[in-house]
Amino acid sequence: MMNKRDSGTAMFLMEMIAVVCFFILCAGVCILTFVKADRLSCLARDTNYASLAAESVAEIWKAQEEEGLESRFLMSKDGESGVIYWDSQWNPVEDAEAADYRAEISLTKEGLMEEAQIRIRRLEDGAELFELDAKRICRSYGRHGREHKYE
After folding, report:
1. How many CA atoms lie within 13 A of 106 on its CB side?
2. Parallel/antiparallel/unpaired status of strands 113-122 and 101-110
3. pLDDT of residue 143
4. What is the per-residue pLDDT across 91-150, written as a single tens digit (0 to 9) for each?
5. Cα Dmax for the chain
6. Which residues lie below 8 Å from residue 15, measured CB to CB, with a gap of 6+?
7. Considering the entire predicted model, what is its pTM?
8. φ, ψ for residue 87 (rounded to 5)?
9. DSSP string, the chain
10. Confidence class of residue 4 from pLDDT cuts 50, 70 and 90?
11. What is the pLDDT of residues 8-62, one digit of tens each?
12. Are 137 and 144 in contact (CB under 8 A)?
């Protein structure tokens, strides 16, 4: 007569538990991989948009100075530097509460050279997405009182 212990069902049950645990472990690794890939994708997208935004800010600053930044990007002054805010779709906004991204523009002047340092951060976690330094030769007045622009 066969005993219940000798039937093999206990061993089969242990094998099934081991297989299920293995699949749970594999699923966990796959989920973590997909989450990390999604984060890297979001970082790459934000960095790409931040670089385009910084280049646009630099070009407008070179062409129209601070007035262009104030009119096109709604830049507000924060002491010596300017601040620009964007929403999640990279549209300029005035309200810092509605913003997802922030650019800090530090303007310095040394002789005939002006320099703008543009830093763009994501407000959610404070991560710096992009930094750009732009230089230009500033406007000066000639001997005859006429304005000459060198760029």
Report:
1. 7
2. antiparallel
3. 45
4. 999 988 999 999 999 999 888 899 999 999 999 999 999 999 999 987 654 444 444 444
5. 120
6. none
7. 0.73
8. -85, -170
9. ---GGGGSHHHHHHHHHHHHHHHHHHHHHHHHHHHHHHHHHHHHHHHHHHHHHHHHHHHHHHHHHHHHHHHHS--EEETTEEEEEE-TTS-EES-GGG-SEEEEEEEEEETTEEEEEEEEEETTT--EEEEEEEEEEPPEE-TTS-EE---
10. low
11. 788 889 999 999 999 999 999 999 999 999 999 999 999 999 999 999 999 999 9
12. no
Residue the block writes with tokens 């538990």: 17
Q: Look at the block and give the residue holding tokens 């300017």.
A: 82
What type of residue sits at position 104? E
